[in-house]
Amino acid sequence: MLDLDKLTPEQYRARYEALQIQARARAAAPKPVTQFADIARENIVSQDTIPPGWYACLRLHKGATLRITNTSGTPGAAFFMWNADETAERYNAGDTTKLQWTTNFTTGRVLFSDMGRVLASITADSGAGHDTIIGPNSPAQTTRRNGRDNLRSAAAKFGLSRRDVAPSLSLFSPVAVDEQGCMRWRGNPPAGAMLELRAEMNLLVVLSNTPAALSPIQEATGPISYIIWRAPAAGPKDLCRTFTEEAVRGFINTDGFFAA
């Protein structure tokens, strides 16, 4: 394994440029084929529907899969998670973006913690678009329930506080950068858009049915639903575990956490 501590500045620069070339080639390549498997009833752990403006606090065991469906095409859903075994470790939006050289989180991508480990993998995605830069809406944007307050309330139910909530992932939130370099809303996601996340650790998860901050509509327009189910175990050639060099290192760190 490469020892980063022994590289010279010139070697760091060369490695950076090589990773950049790889990232651009990967972005230009055909996207991985997404397949949502049929879920046998006996494999379902739990399922529910979240009404507009409300949220759910979920516990996922390592290896469980969470399927989220935007049944109504509502403009966004806030998502955040912590390592259930050590809640000081949590989702890191910045590392998830920069380590994978992309803001396009879809099938094959992983979600990193602030400890360089993989919390969850995106095993299937219908392509509605997800944002981890702008975040959920705030109290200043609506007189109704909002994403930021919901995340803090959910954290309290896990025995955590406001300081434990960092920048979150906004699901079903299609945004893009315009010619002036500004982030813009690209239109509401389609009804029926889906996303599947596989827990790579024991996780505490909050899923809030509230709009993204950039959405021109600042009230959820319908329900979202979720299913937690037992999927087949990931093999050594699993797409998410091998998709990028950064993901490989992240899984080495994650596997070491459970081997310790």
From TrEMBL:
Q: Sorted alphabetically, which InterPro entries does this protein's record hold?
A: DUF1989 (IPR018959), UAAP1 (IPR017792)
Q: Which domain of life is it from?
A: Bacteria
Which is one Pfam family of this protein?
Answer: DUF1989
Domain DUF1989: where? 49-204
PANTHER family, alphabetized: RE64534P
Q: Protein name, please?
A: DUF1989 domain-containing protein
